[in-house]
Structures are given as structure tokens and as C-alpha cells.
Records
---
Amino acid sequence: SAVISQKPSRDICQRGTSLTIQCQVDSQVTMMFWYRQQPGQSLTLIATANQGSEATYESGFVIDKFPISRPNLTFSTLTVSNMSPEDSSIYLCSVEGGPSGRESYEQYFGPGTRLTVT
Amino acid sequence: DAKTTQPTSMDCAEGRAANLPCNHSTISGNEYVYWYRQIHSQGPQYIIHGLKNNETNEMASLIITEDRKSSTLILPHATLRDTAVYYCIVRADNYGQNFVFGPGTRLSVLP
């Protein structure tokens, strides 16, 4: 399975500021995703990070609030913009598939970034 | 919305088998059953998945009923480190298909 790292692992931020979270994979992957897990809740998909094109957002999530980049097959960033306390969550990236086609349909998750907005 | 229903919580004695049920009565013919678990403060961990045959790997066994409307994840010898939230998810095996996480089952392995 892919080894996924996220930076930062946690942060405490002031409202109105922005934070960029990085996701790095140790091998090329076809798909990368960003999820949010609010306190005591299950995971919710934010968007699919597409390499070389704009991310595909789920209902309730918009690019202005959660801009995403994916410059290559091993790296993606998620920015949480103009933060409010309601954005306090764990943000997780996940990956699926190898570069040569169907190698795996499982998704593997990073360790998460725990964000607290004060 | 999640297409599965699971008990909210379960207890299991250390060293015994943990049997976690999942109902997925509306599963489609091309949808697989996936199991993940999330240990506190960590990202979800893939456990196993299957279509219609029973599956086994080094972590667990997956038993799927013949009509595919329910399944059971079996941890044969539960340890304290297996305490986690276990998610049962149905999803078609196509790239880009979303994993929809429900609330899962909180398994507590007791000494």
C-alpha cells in the first residue's frame, strides 16, 4: 500500500486566516481525495484532486473556501480559507490506484491534519 | 447517505473472535463491500473487501451472505489494539467512486 504523509499534523489558527495542508505520497497514484472529519463525526468527502485540472467538489464545498492543487501524481494541497471555528476538524487525504492502471481500488488514507480554529 | 447500517457499538473480550455485522440490503450487482477501521486520532485503515465470495487476509475474514444483503467482518483473535470504529461501505469498483462513510461500529476490546 502507498505511504502517505501530511503536513502539518496539527495546527491552531486564528479565525480569518488560511492554512494550506500538504499531502505527499511515496508513489505515483491515479486518484487523490480530500476528506473532512468534524469532531465526533464520520468522514465527509470534500473534493477529488485532479492532476492538471480543477478539483471536483462535492455538494456543500466550494473552491473559494477549499482551493486544491495537484501539480503531479504524488502531491496535493488543500487550503482552508478565511477560517472560522466551524472549520475545526481533521482533514485527511486519501489515494487510490497506481500509475499503470488498475492496481488497486482500495483507498489509503493519510494520518490527518487536526485543525483548531480559535 | 451511507447505504449500510451497522450497530452503534459492540464489546468483545480480548482473545475472542469479534464478529461485526453490516446490512446492505440495497447493494447493486457491481458494488463491493469494503471494511475500514479508524483507531483514535489516526486515518482510516483499509481492512478487506469482497464482491460475493468470502475473503480472508492477515487482518480479518469477510463473510458475505448469498443474497449479498449483509456481511460480517470477523477478527479471529481480538486484541486491545483492535479497539476502533469499524466502517462498512459499499462501492462500485471504478476509479473515482466516492467512499461514503456512515457512523460505523465502535468496537471496544476488553481485557
---
Amino acid sequence: SAVISQKPSRDICQRGTSLTIQCQVDSQVTMMFWYRQQPGQSLTLIATANQGSEATYESGFVIDKFPISRPNLTFSTLTVSNMSPEDSSIYLCSGDRGGNTEAFFGQGTRLTVV
Amino acid sequence: KQEVTQIPAALSVPEGENLVLNCSFTDSAIYNLQWFRQDPGKGLTSLLLIQSSQREQTSGRLNASLDKSSGRSTLYIAASQPGDSATYLCAVHSGGGADGLTFGKGTHLIIQP
């Protein structure tokens, strides 16, 4: 599997501000995804990051709140916009090479909104 | 909508015991199933991937089985060690493999020295 470098690893932000999380993969991947893990909960898929086009969002997540970019096959960003304390979570990016290949994850970004 | 359930939610056992973690899913039309471990403050580490056509996969002391028709998977850990302490997550890949994963809530495992 490949290695994903995700940054920042953690941040404390003021409500109403925005934070951009970056993920860099050490080799090309077909698919990239963004997940959220709220305190005490499991991972929930936010969106599929499509290379060169708009991301595909899951029900309950919208582009204005979570804009995503994927300019190439190794890099993606997720922005958490106009943050509120309810956005305090761990955000993780994931990649795979399509088909029956293992999904692998970045180390996660622990976000606290105060 | 696919739902994944893991039992038990937490488990504490003495070192050396063999143990089984359970995962069930509601829609049997899956592409594959993957087991991960999550350590505090860290991301997810992939343990095993079972394709929908497979019955089991093994890696070292770990063995994962899949019964797709009944919507169940088990993760067997042999001769448990304190280093196995972590949260174990089961995730299902549906939608022909192009979609993301649906995760269970995990089993928090503690191995007592």
C-alpha cells in the first residue's frame, strides 16, 4: 500500500474560521476519500475526491461547508468552513487503487473548535 | 443503506488468550470487507482485506472469515499480546468498489499483561 501524509495533525480553531487539511500520497492512487470521526463514533464518509472535477458528497454533507480539491492523482485538500464546536472531530483522508485493493489512511487531523 | 455492527463494543482479556471479534452487515451485496486497527492518536492500519468471493484471509496471528450470504465476518486473534490493544474496525466496501467504506463502531480491545 501507499503512504499518505496528512497535515496538520491537530489544530484548535476559533468558531467562524476555516481550516484546510492536506493529504499527499507517495504514489498515484485511483480513489481518494474524506471521512469524519466524531467523538466516540465510527468513521463517516464525507465525500469522494474526484481528480479534476467536483467532489461527490454523501447525504448530509455539502460543498459550501466542506469544499474539496483534488488537482492530481496524489494530492487532495478538505476545507472545513465557518466552523462551529459541532465540527470538532477527527478528519481522515483515504486512498486506494480501485478494484479489490486495500484502502489506506492518513494519520488524521484532530480538530477542536472553540 | 448499508449498516455495519460490531460486537462486542469492548473486550478485556488476559495475555495469551485467543479471541474473536464479530462484524455483521445488512446488505450482502458487498465488494469486499476490510479489518483495521486504530491506535489512540493515530490513523487506521489495514489488517486484512477479504474479497466477496473469498471465505477467509490470514496474516500472522490474525484470521478473518467472511460469510457474505449471512452478512457476517469474524476476526480471530491467536495468542493475544499487550501490543494487540487497540480499537478494531470492520468496514464494508459496496457499490462495485468505487464508493467509500461503511464502518462499524469498532471493538475496543485491551490485552492485560
